[in-house]
Q: What sequence folds into this?
């Protein structure tokens, strides 16, 4: 019979087995053969209770897997609000970039996860104007995906409409390219109240 590892137990949300393994000296922050920690597995599978249990027993919320992803990236990708909230409570770096400089906030913006976006900004104090490897902000990503509620929320929370990516494109460009008229209306209204500063 194959020995159950802590990462497998976390993936299966088997709290009894996790507790047993920890009591017998298993390293709660160890990486498996795929470069994943037990916490990373629990976050990836949306097991919020297991995430909480591992963190309460000393799991480090900021260990990156071999792909450079933190548990918060995985929980954000699955729109797992409860796991994200727990990870933030235990000190997860809300602005942790992936190798392509994608932050959890950018993941929420692209996915259209409004409640998660608000949690990351209002509770986690996520920086709204960070850029990925191509110079794209969360606002640009939301505009490119047609996420009008996300766009409106980001603007209210300080997103820079006039920021440009590495190719000189701003959020308006992405909305125009996709012909998202509702987002263009939001931008037009915003620009009337907040004209672009001239330098």
A:
């Amino acid at each position: 019979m194959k020995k159950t590892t802590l990462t497998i137990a976390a993936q299966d949300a088997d709290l009894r087995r996790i507790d047993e393994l920890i009591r017998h000296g298993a390293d709660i922050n160890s990486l498996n053969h795929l470069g994943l920690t037990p916490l990373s597995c629990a976050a990836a599978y949306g097991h919020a209770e297991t995430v909480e249990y591992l963190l309460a027993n000393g799991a480090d919320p900021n260990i990156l897997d071999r792909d450079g992803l933190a548990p918060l990236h995985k929980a954000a990708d699955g729109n797992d609000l409860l796991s994200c909230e727990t990870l933030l409570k235990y000190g997860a770096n809300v602005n942790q970039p992936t190798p392509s400089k994608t932050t959890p906030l950018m993941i929420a913006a692209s996915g259209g996860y409004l409640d998660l976006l608000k949690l990351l900004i209002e509770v986690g104090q996520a920086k709204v104007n960070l850029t990925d490897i191509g110079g794209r902000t969360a606002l640009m990503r939301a505009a490119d995906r047609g996420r009008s509620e996300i766009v409106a929320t980001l603007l209210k929370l300080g997103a820079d409409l006039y920021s440009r990516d590495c190719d000189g494109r701003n959020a308006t460009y992405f909305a125009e390219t996709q012909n998202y008229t509702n987002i263009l209306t939001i931008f037009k209204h915003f620009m009337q109240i907040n004209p672009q500063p001239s330098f």
